[in-house]
Amino acid sequence: MEEKFEPKIAAFVCNWCTYTGADLAGTSRLKQEANARLIRVPCTGRIDPVFIIKAFENGADGVLISGCHPGDCHYNAGNFHARRRWILFKNLLDFIGIDSSRLYFSWVSASEGKKWVDIVDGVIDAVRIKGPFKQYKKMNKEIEIPVAVEEGVSVK
Amino acid sequence: MNELKQICKDALTEKKARFIIGYKEDKNKRVKPFIAKTPEDAEKLTFSHHAVNNLAVYLSRFKNNIDGKIGIVVKSCDLKAVTALIQENQIKRDDLFIIGVNCSGVVLDVAKEFNKDNTQIKCKYCQAKTPPYYDALAEESKEFEMPDDDQAELMAKIDKMTAEERLEFWNAEFEKCIKCYACRQVCPMCYCEKCIVEKSEPQWIDSSSTSRGNFSWNIIRAFHQAGRCIGCHECERACPMGIPLTLLTRKMGMVAFSEFGYRHGTSLTEPTLIGTYSTSDKEDFIK
After folding, report:
1. C-beta atoms of A97 and B251 within 8 A
2. Which of A54, A88, A143 lies nearest to residue B255, judging by beta carbons?
3. How far apart are CA B240 and CA B231, in angstroms?
4. Residue A126, phi then psi, degrees to nearest 5
5. pTM for this predicted structure
6. Among B158, B212, B219, whose Cβ lies nearest the Cβ of A143?
7. Chain B CB within 8 Å of residue A12 CB
8. β-strand B96-101 against B136-138: which pairing, if any?
């Protein structure tokens, strides 16, 4: 029997808006799918694109980034700086041929518990249809235990 | 030629510069970077189609710890790097004595003579043969007919590919990478004291040269250059494996221009692309 594919989603969320929004979704007992792993960061401005690469390397099939609406940033301009970086980063991924449609962005405020649930469910469904992120899985496989060690060849 | 020597000699005698970073020809007729410290040294300074190096890379190593001015010989493309370093507060304009040279193109293969087929890619679309500003200007301006910009054609071809084809193209290129970091060492804009690839707690980028590590390194390098690369094409020249690195950086430069109308290294006072933001940046991709 074929096992059903369950996507892994890494969600980088800002402490002040989306994380609190997700918390509200929880306290309001809203149902959501459990495939997203939330990673709390102080601000979307803290998210270095290397985090996204690292998430894909560690087996994420999709990455969701969410923070305060423009103008609502706790640090005034963190999300504006982040937005600029994302535009560049998305274009770069596209040019290299890495599927940038596995990268999702959203603004979710602390009071938008419902919006958060809708977005997470939407992302999970979309990634489930896309299937596993084969491009990266292939690259990850390459660096598994070298053959020499497996066969017991001693390395001096 | 004598003009350049004379300018440098005068600058060193009159103490306009403490030393001058320039080029000299060695006994094998190779043009190499050379630092002239005395007026006698200035006799050795030269400039030709073979002066390929971007000398601005030495500037970022000095930071602001100089007693007196640094003299530097720059082509118009190298001057963009100097401008960018000033813009990014790595060095002060007042600490520099800029000797601009009129350049009519540099060679791709240093072992061969300069001609139409032996020209660097950057020269094919170079807009300014004369540096836009300088403290002294040397060399006569010569006109050369440049061949077509074949990199732009290749870029358009890549843009038309499907995502899979593009990944395959880059996979074949990045596969060659041996992680020697020559692209970083030679880059005037790569001046971090500790590069992200050397940060090991956590290890952000795989230091092994597997395709995973190579992808991470090249993506992050290109991203750190996004909107910062001034297009001196030194990375591609230094790359021992012949990876077309400038395709990435040039593409990102084009994105920076099309999305934000920004070109790095063209203004001394304009805030940098990443260092600032606009409330009207596009956000059609954000839900």
Report:
1. no
2. A88
3. 19
4. -60, -45
5. 0.90
6. B212
7. no
8. parallel
Q: Tell me if B238 sits within 8 A of B231, measured CB to CB.
A: no
Kindly list the residues from chain A whose CB atom is less than 8 angstroms away from the CB atom of residue B159. Answer: 95
Q: Which domain holds residue A141?
A: 9-150
- Domain map of chain B by residue range? 2-138, 150-260
CATH of the domain at A54: 3.40.50
Asked, for residue A15, whether it belongs to a domain, the answer is: yes
Nearest to A97 among B167, B210, B220 (CB): B167
CB contact under 8 A, A54 and B251: no
With an 8 Å Cβ cutoff, are B168 and A97 in contact? yes
Query: Is residue A4 in a domain?
Result: no
> pLDDT (tens digit, 9 = 90+) per residue, B218-273?
999 999 999 899 999 999 999 999 999 999 999 999 999 999 999 998 889 889 99
Which candidate from B169, B208, B222 shows the least CB-CB separation from A92? B222
pLDDT tens for chain A, 156 residues long, are 567 889 999 999 999 999 999 999 999 999 999 999 999 999 999 999 999 999 998 889 999 999 999 999 999 999 999 999 999 999 999 999 988 889 999 999 999 999 999 999 999 999 999 988 888 888 777 766 555 555 555 554
Is residue A1 in a domain? no
Q: In this structure, what token pair is assigned to residue B96?
A: 């520099």
d(CA B119, CA B102): 16
The number of distinct structural domains making up chain A is 1
Interface of A with B in 126-155 (CB under 8 A): 135-136, 139-140, 142-143
Q: Could you tell me if residue A52 is inside a domain?
A: yes
Among B227, B255, B249, B219, residue whose Cα is nearest residue B237: B249
